[in-house]
Amino acid sequence: MYKYIFRRILLLIPVLLGVSFVVFSIMYFTPGDPAKLILGERAPADEVQALREQMGLDKPYIVRFFNFLKGAVTGDLGRSYSTKRPVTEELFARFPATLQLAAAAIVIAVCLGIPIGIISATKQYSAFDMIFMVLALVGVSMPNFWQGLMMVLLFSIVLGWLPSSGYGTFAHLIMPALTIGTSTMALIARMTRSSMLEVVRQDYIRTARAKGLSELVVINRHALKNALIPIVTVIGLQFGNLLGGAVLTETIFAWPGVGRLMVDSIRQKDFPMVQGGVLLLAITFSIVNLAVDILYAYIDPRIKAQYK
């Protein structure tokens, strides 16, 4: 296991290099001059040029890219063009809010999606199964930004139950978490149903029932445990996506997370902030995937035996 974890950590290096190169290239070749955005379109040309030299924007592409990599290795992602503060400080000040939102959304998705999937599998083709699979399809198909706006309209404007935007209380968390958790819940429910249907038809499940075990014991102790591998895979991937994919939701609900910060930074051509934000999310996503792979070994002993 330790060798496997070490290999996965080493593989993280080329992934982060590739992500850094792609994001840096996109930002570099995107039209617009950060110096002009900071000083204004009517700023004198000599002042714009002086600011470009001060920020290092006059250097060639390859020099700027390697300077960024050299700083990233030491934890120095540069300073934000707009706030003048270190990028690392800005990101770590915003990341807890994004982590809180993603964690709340995945808890909602898991606590609702897995039970719905289990019941749908054990009551296949029943009215419950049909209704919830249709709702799951709707949940997967519904765009998050539209759902978020509709929730603001209903629960904030019409009913007045929840605040429309902001951060700091549990009430502020409910609508954003439900918005991004709905599609994840639908995916988990569908995957749980599919995986459980494969398992409940196995011979050892029939043997467990023939031994007189209760249906609850058969489902929870025998069927669910053997159906968990694909479910855990979906949960891990979706949690990683929630950390990096809550951009629109954070913008709609004025949630002070990394996603909203990156949207603002892209508009301002804030190269260091965008590059640092993408790098942070790529590292987080890779760590989540590594944790899921390690979890496989504790769910299925056959996988753990392969590492010995």
Q: What is the number of beta strands?
A: 0
Q: How much strand? A: under 5%
Low-confidence stretches: none
CATH homologous superfamily title = MetI-like
- The CATH topology is MetI-like fold
- The total count of helices amounts to 14
Rounded to the nearest angstrom, the distance between the terminal CA atoms is: 7 Å
Largest sheet: none
Outline, from the CA principal axes? globular
Overall pLDDT score: 80
| Residue share in helix | over 70%
Structural class call reads mainly alpha
Return the string of H and E elements. Answer: HHHHHHHHHHHHHH
CATH architecture descriptor name:
Orthogonal Bundle
- Using the CA coordinates, give the radius of gyration: 24 Å
What's the level 1 CATH class? Answer: Mainly Alpha
* Number of separate domains: 1
In short:
The chain crosses the membrane at residues 9-29, 99-119, 131-158, 170-189, 228-258, 278-299. With 308 residues, the chain is an all-alpha fold. Helix content is 80%, strand content 0%.
Question: Care to describe what's here?
Answer:
By secondary structure, the protein is mainly α. It has a single domain, classed as MetI-like (MetI-like fold). It is 80% helix and 0% strand. Helix 8 (170-200) crosses helix 10, helix 10 (215-245) packs antiparallel against helix 13 and helix 12 runs antiparallel to helix 13 (271-299). The chain starts with a helix and ends with a helix.
